[in-house]
Specification:
Elements lengths: L19 H9 L4 H21 L2 H23 L4 H4 L14 H7 L4 H12 L2 H8 L7 H7 L17 H20 L2 H5 L6 H20 L4 H4 L1
Helix pairs in contact: 1-3, 2-3, 3-6, 6-8
Length: about 230
């Protein structure tokens, strides 16, 4: 009998733990996308057999494992930058290309449709996810993925208190100094210089970029300033 038509007594031999709690623990520790995808595939095969055998308890077990595996590789995919994020700061000179989310999914044997579903399942809040899996009839991956597309209105965030005049003066001085530096130094020559720690600098640039985005979008308009 093929692995896509597994009987109940071969669940453990096919790579799935004998108990659901064991599956939860193993998946929580899983750090590789392809391993999680393999779990999801085996659970899907077990669910298919359970439907044919009309074994409801086995079907529920298989769907719960499939959902946990799908959510886990969705969580891991979220840690990989999208193509636009991976190339935002450029890959000049001898820098190695950054692995994108699309490439990571492809390397793990995940189709674009499966990747979208996994990312959506991973977007379901943890309490909702656990409630769904704990229900008498756990949902399918497709049904739970639809929950991950629901727009949720974030709680209002109160505006921060205005900074002190000293902080404003410090920020103005640093921005003026950095602007003068940018006007006289070529960024490509610095990025490609020997001894540059690309990982540290890329993280610093990401922090600065986020700060500047928030800063410039909250500056008063020219009319308001006047």
């Amino acid at each position: 009998m093929s692995e896509t038509n597994l009987p109940a007594n071969l669940a453990t031999n096919g790579g799935l733990p004998a108990t659901y709690e064991a599956a939860k623990r193993a998946l929580a520790e899983c750090q590789r996308i392809d391993e999680c995808k393999d779990w999801a595939d085996k659970a899907a095969a077990l669910a298919s057999y359970a439907r044919q055998a009309q074994d409801r308890s086995l079907l529920d077990l298989a769907q719960r494992i499939q959902l946990r595996a799908t959510r886990r590789y969705g969580e891991l995919l979220k840690q990989v930058p999208r193509g636009d994020e991976a190339t935002r700061y450029g890959q000049e000179g001898a820098h190695q290309p950054v692995i994108t989310r699309t490439q990571a999914a492809k390397d793990a044997g995940i189709s674009p449709h499966q990747a979208r579903q996994a990312l959506r399942v991973a977007s379901v809040p943890a309490d909702e996810f656990e409630d769904e899996l704990g229900s008498d009839r756990p949902p399918t991956v497709t049904a739970l993925a639809a929950r991950g597309t629901i727009s949720r209105v974030p709680a209002p965030v109160p505006p921060p208190a205005p900074a002190s005049p000293a902080k404003v003066a410090d920020a103005t001085a640093m921005l003026c100094q950095f602007a003068a530096f940018c006007g006289t130094c070529d960024p490509v020559s610095i990025a490609s210089a020997p001894g540059v720690d690309a990982d540290i600098l890329r993280g610093q640039v990401a922090t600065i970029d986020q700060w500047l985005d928030r800063f410039v979008t909250n500056l008063p308009s020219e009319q308001a300033a006047a």
